[in-house]
Write a structure and sequence with these properties.
seven-stranded mixed sheet, alpha/beta, five-stranded parallel sheet, 14 helices
């Protein structure tokens, strides 16, 4: 008879859930994870990982088209949409298999099905979307001393923009197109919307982005977002801000959108496909939360700094526990959660230290406060900037359009925020994340030796610029 008693049961096997399970097992907890469909969750199977594979194909296609700029010649450059999608799915499959291996390696029991919480310490699992593999645990009743909810989120649906999987897509359909649309409307200019806009534009689609707020990439620093916008528009992406889609009229193989421009006027736009990228909402339904009295707020579970909910013995991490909706935030919360349960006294999550990355062309990355946020807090600041055009490595790469921006507290020298747009900034940002975590001052950063020639030199130069010591502009 199967052993249905555990120390910790985690509901959901996305990046937050499976990392939490591994750390719990490392700490000696008898651990199980419940998954209704596929190991790795949305991020690994339908989100961060496969989109990066798609964007890599687009990036290489872009460079092939510009071979002449690098003294190279190539024949006719074409692409195979099916092969691009196939590669993306293969990348996801490889990582999905890897999560399964990690569960076995760490002796984490996988329970296949959909869980609901009957009471603290007790859950019921019913059949999910994937059948339990032979010999694996499935539907039934289970007990655990601690339950961690890591059920993630799903695309938000707005009235009039309901996806139909054919003409109006969410990110699920946008990742597996049967053919490349010749024209596309993207509703929403957050990371998901902009990444798909960038991907499809690179492969030749006429792309229009509509954003209800006055700024694209609304969570980013305004100066960085404005720089990115100019770059997108130069690539041919049409951007409408302060506007909203009020109506979609579907034809056999196209959609006509009515767009309110926010200035009293309207326009219509007919496109092959529409991508609704207006955010996500937490998967809090059918878990039994209301019955248990678990506090929620605007579609998210309310937690404290150690991921505790309002009910003892029940925890929540990741997207279901609110913004920022990022895989690395979920992973870190999971580690904090189980280390707290173990009594290791981890530091509570500091959301200001969580970096954000958008993998469009050019890339955008940031951590900490924007310049506007420091003004709202009435902080006295120093701002430094360094352009990619002043960096030798960027020029050698043919990637001389970009900007690094840093913000310091004028009184203390504390690094308050860092914001970047340009080639490979999603890899560079971690240098500033480490610096902020170590409470590094501007003096220590200026004493740091950056290797030459690298893009990272711009990070040091931006700091110098904030203090009137910049060398290469």
């Amino acid at each position: 008879m199967a052993d249905n008693n555990f120390d910790i049961i985690i509901i959901g096997s996305g990046p937050g859930g499976y990392v939490t399970a591994i750390r719990a097992a490392q700490l000696g907890f008898k651990t199980a994870i419940v998954e209704r469909e596929y190991l790795g969750g949305i991020c690994l199977n339908w989100g961060c990982i496969p989109t990066k594979a798609l964007l890599r194909s687009a990036e290489i296609f872009h460079y092939m088209q510009h071979a002449k700029d690098y003294g190279l010649s190539a024949g006719e450059v074409t692409y195979d949409p099916a092969a691009v999608v196939k590669r993306s799915r293969a990348v996801s499959k490889r990582l999905n298999d890897g999560v399964g291996f990690l569960m076995k390696k760490n002796k984490v029991t996988v329970i296949w099905g959909e869980a609901s919480i009957d009471a603290p310490g007790k859950i019921t699992v019913k059949a999910g979307r994937s059948e339990a593999p032979k010999g694996a645990l499935g539907a039934g009743n289970y007990q655990a001393k601690q339950i961690i909810i890591a059920t993630g989120a799903r695309p938000r649906v707005l009235p009039g923009l309901e996806p139909d999987k054919k003409l109006v897509w969410t990110y699920f359909e946008a990742m597996v197109p049967e053919k490349m649309p010749k024209s596309l409307l993207v509703v929403g200019s957050g990371a998901i919307g902009i990444e798909f806009a960038s991907f499809y534009r690179t492969f030749g689609a006429e792309v229009t982005v509509v954003e209800v707020l006055p700024q694209i990439l609304p969570v980013e620093d305004a100066e960085i977002a404005a720089f990115a916008r100019k770059s997108f528009e130069k690539q041919g992406i049409k951007i409408l801000t302060g506007a909203k889609v009020t109506k979609l009229d579907k034809q056999a193989d196209s959609v006509t959108a009515t767009i309110d421009d926010g200035k009293g006027g309207t326009q219509t736009l007919t496109v092959d496909r529409v991508i609704a990228a207006v955010g996500v909402v937490g998967n809090i339904e059918n878990l039994g939360l209301e019955k248990l009295g678990v506090k929620t707020d605007r579609g998210s579970i309310v937690i404290d700094g150690l991921c505790k909910t309002s009910v003892p013995g029940i925890y929540a991490i990741g997207d279901v526990a609110g913004p920022p909706l990022l895989a690395h935030k979920a992973e870190h919360e999971g580690v904090i959660c189980v280390e707290g349960i173990k009594g290791l006294h981890p530091h509570p999550m500091n959301k200001r230290m969580i970096p954000g990355c958008t993998y469009c062309t050019p890339q955008v990355a940031s951590v900490g406060l924007t310049e506007q946020a420091t003004k709202d807090q009435k902080l006295d600041i120093r701002v430094g900037r360094f352009p990619f055009v002043g960096n030798g490595k960027a020029i050698a790469l043919g990637e001389d359009q970009g900007l690094v921006k840093v913000i310091f507290d004028k009184k203390t020298g504390q690094l308050l925020g860092a914001h970047m747009v340009g080639a490979e900034v999603t890899e560079l940002i971690q240098g500033y994340v480490v610096a902020m975590n170590l409470e590094t001052t501007e003096e220590e950063l200026m004493q740091t030796v950056f290797p030459h020639p690298t893009l990272s030199e711009m990070m040091g130069e931006a700091v110098r610029d904030a203090y009137g010591k910049v060398l290469n502009i």
